[in-house]
Design a protein that fits this description.
Number of strands: 13
Strand content: 35-45%
Distance between the termini: 38 Å
Shape: elongated
Structural class: alpha+beta
Largest sheet: 7 strands, antiparallel
Number of helices: 5
Length: 196
């Protein structure tokens, strides 16, 4: 026979329940990645589709790819030294330069490599957020596209910034809200109440 369903009890249980990814682990808004828990944000190159995972933020566009992650363990020397010889040991890194990103020590260099048997030029950027925290960007594109794309790669890395506690608090988990349909409600009037 049929199961007994406690409809009202079930609806009470799910009302207010969080759903979807936890914003404390990072939020993607178009090509911007915001991490309220660690209080930083950055803008990926134009047209890049971002995907967040526990270990990295990965971006993919028609002719480029990006990986953003945390250097572990954090290097103790200069960012220039790290990019030149420690990040990819044994790799030939050219055009190594130090610079600042929003007051943070940073360095960049260029390398070559392969992705899925395709030759790529790689822009590497390391940014020291604090003594124990270094974030890394790796941008890759076919060598023939590198000069055209590199300005976007650098602009993306330079967009790395801290966010205030107030800005971070604006990202709350999405919650299920049980709504009773009343006479006169329409699909449109109910949809306008949704936070999605």
């Amino acid at each position: 026979e049929g199961a007994i369903v406690n409809r009202d009890g079930y609806l009470q249980q799910i009302d207010g329940m969080a759903w979807g990814p936890d914003p404390r682990d990072g939020v993607i808004e178009g090509t911007t990645f915001i991490h309220p828990g660690l209080r930083f944000a950055f803008d990926a190159p134009q047209d890049m589709k971002l995907q967040n995972s526990p270990d990295a933020v990965v971006g993919q566009a028609d002719n480029a790819a990006m990986i953003f992650d945390l250097a572990s363990p954090a290097p103790s020397g200069s960012m220039e030294q790290y990019v030149a010889s420690q990040w990819q040991e044994g790799a030939k890194i050219s055009n190594v330069q130090s610079f600042e990103v929003n007051g943070m020590e940073a360095a960049t260099g260029v390398a070559t490599g392969t992705i899925n048997n395709t030759q790529v030029a790689i822009r590497m950027v390391a940014i020291r957020q604090s003594a124990n925290t270094v974030y890394r960007f790796m941008y890759a594109t076919p060598p023939g596209s590198f000069n055209a794309m590199d300005r976007q790669f650098i602009a993306s890395a330079q967009s790395f910034r801290g966010i205030s506690a107030e800005e971070a608090s604006g990202y709350a988990p999405k919650r299920i809200r049980v709504v009773t349909v009343r006479e006169g409600d329409t699909v449109q009037s109910l949809a306008q109440q949704m936070q999605v």
